[in-house]
Amino acid sequence: MTRSRDVPSLVAKARQGDPRSVARLISLVENGDPALPQVAAAMAPWAGRAQVIGLTGAPGVGKSTTTNELVRALRETGARVGVLAVDPSSPFTGGAILGDRIRMQDHSADSGVYIRSMSTRGQLGGLSAATPQAVRVLEGAGCDVVLVETVGVGQAEVEIASLADTTLVLLAPGMGDAIQAVKAGVLEIADVFVINKSDRPGADATFRDIQGMLALGDRGPGDWRPQVTRAVAVKGEGLDDVVAAIGKHREWLESTGNLQVRRERRAAAEVSALALGVLRARMGDPREGTALGELAARVAAGELDPHAAAALLLETIS
Amino acid sequence: MTRSRDVPSLVAKARQGDPRSVARLISLVENGDPALPQVAAAMAPWAGRAQVIGLTGAPGVGKSTTTNELVRALRETGARVGVLAVDPSSPFTGGAILGDRIRMQDHSADSGVYIRSMSTRGQLGGLSAATPQAVRVLEGAGCDVVLVETVGVGQAEVEIASLADTTLVLLAPGMGDAIQAVKAGVLEIADVFVINKSDRPGADATFRDIQGMLALGDRGPGDWRPQVTRAVAVKGEGLDDVVAAIGKHREWLESTGNLQVRRERRAAAEVSALALGVLRARMGDPREGTALGELAARVAAGELDPHAAAALLLETIS
């Protein structure tokens, strides 16, 4: 827990780019610290400074390597880069998960790069609320680009990635490919596809499958047509094309007014997630003799139907 | 939309095992039909009749084949079996996803098996609310076992699977294995591991890795020790072991009182998801001139911080 009086100095130091202060502010976000509203208020004016890039894909497509090389390519354009590697917490332990905190050491000596993995132990509203808040900390610290990398291909991760200004979806040949992308719901959210491991057999087929699926899409004349790029991240190949596609998408976003639309959508998701988090907290823990616990026991026993129980629950929390 | 006066006859026919009526009731759940509270009230008395088995795993481990063979093995014990293949909808289109509705045709002529894929187009409270309601329909229709298969390895899917009485986690050799299982948060929720494709190289290593990770777990003397089974679902091998492990877990659940605990947890998740769904509906669509839309625009513009916006939003909906 952070003392409220520490916040102004922490924010001031983060604004000057002090990495420890940036890290501490993101920890406040992650832990749902009581000082969070104060941090959010202090950071609000820098909202929207950075381009937020979501990056998602199934396990095994090479997300970490691609992120690492993409950071390198973005740094070469002179941009300051923040990376948030989002680890959805286990529903039970809420624990941190191995691995991410110890990777991307390539950039550890570069003061133009912040890298943080993030879970959501105590955060009201979960990742939908926590991610934009952490992005705002990185924006406040002067990042021009924030990469939000999500582990996995589930609904929550897809949603987080889709709240970015530009969403990259990574695929790799021979992983079930296009059909899996459809199943995971990533086809509709991708602004840029990156076919990683493009030196492997099957890369051409994956490329054609994705192009074929995109051709089926219902797109108007002013709509964005998702770009399909190829990379071999482990050799550092193809990342310039990815950066170019990101730039092209950015131009489209700005020229069409879609940047504003996406940012309001992100803000709406954040605000509603926070509000729902407050309401969820009011419901309390069902194991601790709350109204929710009593209602749940009656539903489990077949004495009450869940809709009636929900209506009774709403009376207790509003 | 279903007329309220149709519900009693639909429920009566579903109770007699009529597959069309069962299918229509699950469609009501899926679409968030206004008649849903009436259906829920009619089905409430049969809550808890079936053993609910969650089945999850990363894309490519062979979930569909394993589910198919597991249905066969369960049918051989004489059980009536329901299968819900849960497709998290895309956050944007909410559309149905290819594939699942046309598979498992092996069982299409067997009147002791109901198979349904399910997404959550209009459902208040999303899959956390829809899944238990669809389970209750299958319980009402006389199923002894309901398999809930979730696509993907994301947080939402893990949560749904974890709300079962017994949770199976499928792995396959050479897919990143144990570390990926940890990253996906499935290690803590698994009651039974199934190492599918156990005839492939690396199966022994996967088996050892999982056993090793389980040995690290902090377990008391009365706690359940997750079982690790091996299968080659495509050849129909090993499913009897899986069924035996499920039965053993069921005995543990009953003898320790944990069955009741899990069911109340599931009911609590359902009731709170429904209540939050009602509240979310009150917030309205941010693109339609609602208070949420106005607040989001101010947050995106940096004029208001999201916590302050959430507090203002709560005033408008309670």
How is this structure best described in words?
Chains A, B: GO terms for molecular function: GTP binding; GTPase activity; kinase activity. Chains A, B: Pfam families: MeaB (PF03308). Chains A, B: Residues 49-193 form the AAA+ ATPase domain. Chains A, B: InterPro entries: AAA+_ATPase, GTPase/Isobutyryl-CoA_mutase, GTPase_ArgK, P-loop_NTPase. Two copies of one chain form a homodimer. The first copy, chain A, has 318 residues and is α/β, with parallel strands linked by helices. Chain A has two domains: 46-257, Rossmann fold; 284-317, no CATH class. Helix content of chain A is 48%, strand content 12%. Chain A is built from twelve helices and seven strands. The first copy, chain A, has helices at residues 7-15, 19-31, 36-43, 63-76, 126-140, 155-162, 177-183, 203-216, 239-256, 258-283, 291-300, 306-317; strands spanning 51-57, 81-86, 113-118, 145-150, 166-171, 192-195, 227-230. Chain A has a seven-stranded parallel β-sheet, with helices on both faces. In chain A, α1 (7-15) packs across α2 (19-31), α2 (19-31) runs antiparallel to α5 (126-140) and α11 packs antiparallel against α12. The longest helix of chain A has 26 residues, at 258-283. Chain A starts with 6 loop residues before the first helix and ends with a helix. The model of chain A is unreliable at 89-105 (pLDDT under 50).
